[in-house]
């Protein structure tokens, strides 16, 4: 079997990897489907294909929502292990991370209630719960961006000291890799944040103004970056073992 196929199989065997693949397929389908629906005339075969891809994207999005019903405990375990970030050297990073964890933890039950309301399992209106979950998601993304920017500032200072003191190449290379990782995180979170704003109520910045293909593009950028980071993380673990 080809190494690329084996890598894909390993990715799909893990929950985190499968979610990233589904997410990429979801936004990729929305990107292509939105583009075809926009450019092709009604009744044209390309237009029909675009509509089907948009429906496929919606089903994958629903699939991810259902799978997230089981993410609360893992998020809680992570939040408890991090605590108040006593091991962090920087106070700013510490509190940004704590607030980020709080936003992430609150996001899941809000989304679960919205999903249950849409599925008519409970008798509440889902609109306000979807809005609250979107606000929490956007807040988490913004906090993550601010945290990465702060980390980048500290890494630049460390890199300057490393180069000035003529430290070993491995330490400087590691700092460069860490910086690239934070830049990718900022790119991914910014793309997602643009979509989060789009899903806010009309009148808030550019809410509701993105066409489907642009939502798909932003999501695809974020998803591909996530896959790159996951692959890079696996590579670093292999090197360290």
From TrEMBL:
Entry GO terms, CC: peroxisomal membrane
Protein's name according to its UniProt entry: Peroxisomal membrane protein 11C
Signal peptide range in chain numbering: none
Protein species of origin: Eleginops maclovinus (Patagonian blennie)
Matches recorded under PANTHER family: PEROXISOMAL BIOGENESIS FACTOR 11 (PTHR20990), PEROXISOMAL MEMBRANE PROTEIN 11C (PTHR20990:SF1)
Any Pfam family: PEX11
Keywords from the named record: Membrane, Peroxisome, Transmembrane, Transmembrane helix
One GO-annotated biological process of the protein: peroxisome fission
InterPro entries in the record: PEX11, PEX11C_met
Origin superkingdom: Eukaryota
Transmembrane segments: 129-149, 210-228
Subcellular location: Peroxisome membrane
């Amino acid at each position: 079997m080809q190494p690329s196929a084996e890598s894909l199989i390993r990715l799909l065997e893990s929950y985190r990897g499968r979610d990233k693949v589904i997410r990429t397929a979801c936004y990729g389908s929305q990107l292509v489907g939105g583009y075809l629906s926009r450019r092709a005339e009604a009744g044209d075969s390309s237009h029909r294909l675009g509509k089907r891809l948009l429906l496929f994207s919606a089903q994958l999005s629903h699939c991810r929502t259902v799978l997230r019903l089981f993410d609360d405990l893992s998020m809680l375990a992570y939040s408890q292990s991090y605590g108040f970030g006593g091991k962090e050297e920087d106070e700013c990073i510490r509190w940004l991370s704590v607030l980020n964890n709080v936003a992430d933890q609150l996001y899941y039950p809000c989304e679960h209630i919205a999903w249950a309301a849409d599925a008519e399992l409970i008798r509440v209106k889902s609109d306000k719960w979807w809005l609250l979950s979107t606000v929490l998601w956007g807040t988490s993304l913004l906090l993550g961006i601010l945290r990465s920017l702060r980390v980048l500032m500290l890494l630049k200072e460390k890199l300057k000291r490393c180069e000035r003191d003529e430290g070993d190449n491995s330490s400087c290379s590691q700092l460069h890799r860490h910086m690239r990782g934070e830049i990718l995180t900022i790119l991914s979170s910014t793309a997602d944040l643009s979509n989060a704003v789009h899903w806010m109520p009309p009148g808030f910045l550019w809410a509701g103004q993105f066409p489907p293909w642009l939502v798909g593009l932003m999501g695809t950028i974020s998803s591909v970056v996530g896959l790159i980071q996951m692959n890079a993380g696996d590579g670093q673990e292999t090197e360290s073992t």
